[in-house]
Specification:
Layout (H helix, E strand, L loop, with lengths): L30 H10 L21 H5 L3 E6 L5 H9 L3 E6 L3 H14 L4 E4 L3 H7 L5 E7 L17 H10 E11 L2 H13 L2 E3 L5 H4 L9 H8 L5 E7 L2
Parallel strand pairs: 1-2, 1-4, 2-3, 4-5
Antiparallel strand pairs: 5-7, 6-7
Helix pairs in contact: 1-4, 5-6
């Protein structure tokens, strides 16, 4: 399949034809995880996000959803350990997580149950669909943590740090909002530092320690632990939305 998007075609739902690269499901789910999906996922929905239920792309009412709290967004939350940690540590903030990999969604739901976190909403799909329905300048912090590296050069356009993802992300972030990126792939760092400022952000690092050491409220994820075991160096990049 070509990486070039189809310019005129649309999905039968009316959605623009967006190529998606990655897994939707991995190994079989445990019965407990299937129960989490059956019992918890619908009630943690942020609202009508997908094109088949919201073809007019009406915006989500975040004030109704979170009672006027600040809203933070995590793109690709993996197994959910970081988002649950942040939600428990910041009960005065509303969280939205986007993750198309259903095994990761099931893991998150189990962690939400265990932590009794009540300030998280979950979109089990493409973050670009969420960007469509978020009000402009509504997000005060966003996280992109250990995204799929797509290491082959011909696949770099599949990475999140491309205009297709960064431009709509920038639109939904408030002026002055913080965007955190963590990755252990040096070439991903290079592309991030090139592309994120083009989308309307400034990199806040002033010295090497600003990207060599994790944030004060950081919790190491399973992806980071794998990177460390395999001898790769994590980078912690902090950007601020201009405006």
């Amino acid at each position: 399949m070509s990486d070039d998007p189809k310019q005129s075609d649309t999905h039968p739902s009316g959605a623009p034809w967006r190529n998606f690269y990655g897994r939707f499901k991995g190994k079989g789910l445990r019965k407990s995880q299937e129960a989490y999906l059956d019992e918890d996922l619908a009630k943690l929905s942020p609202g009508a996000v997908d094109w088949d239920v919201n073809p007019d792309r009406e915006k989500i009412d975040l004030n109704a959803l979170f009672g006027g709290k600040d809203v933070w967004l995590e793109v690709g939350f993996g197994g959910g350990e970081h988002m649950v940690h942040q939600a428990v540590s910041n009960p005065d903030v509303g969280f939205i997580g986007c993750e198309p990999y259903i095994n990761g969604v099931a893991m998150l739901l189990g962690k939400i149950r265990d932590a009794e976190a009540e300030n998280i909403k979950v979109h089990p799909g493409d973050a670009r669909d969420m960007f469509d329905v978020l009000p402009e300048q509504s997000i005060s912090k966003a996280f992109l943590l250990y995204p799929d590296p797509w290491p082959k050069k011909r696949h770099h356009r599949r990475r999140f740090v491309t205009p297709e993802h960064l431009e709509p992300l920038a639109k939904v972030m408030q002026p002055g909002a913080i965007f955190r990126v963590a990755t252990d792939i040096e070439d991903y760092v290079r592309q991030t530092l090139e592309e994120v400022p083009k989308a309307g952000f400034e990199w806040l690092a002033e010295r090497p320690d600003d990207w060599r050491h994790p944030w004060d409220d950081w919790i190491s994820t399973r992806y980071e632990q794998k990177a460390l075991r395999e001898g790769r160096t994590p980078h912690y990049l902090t950007f601020r939305r201009l405006g």
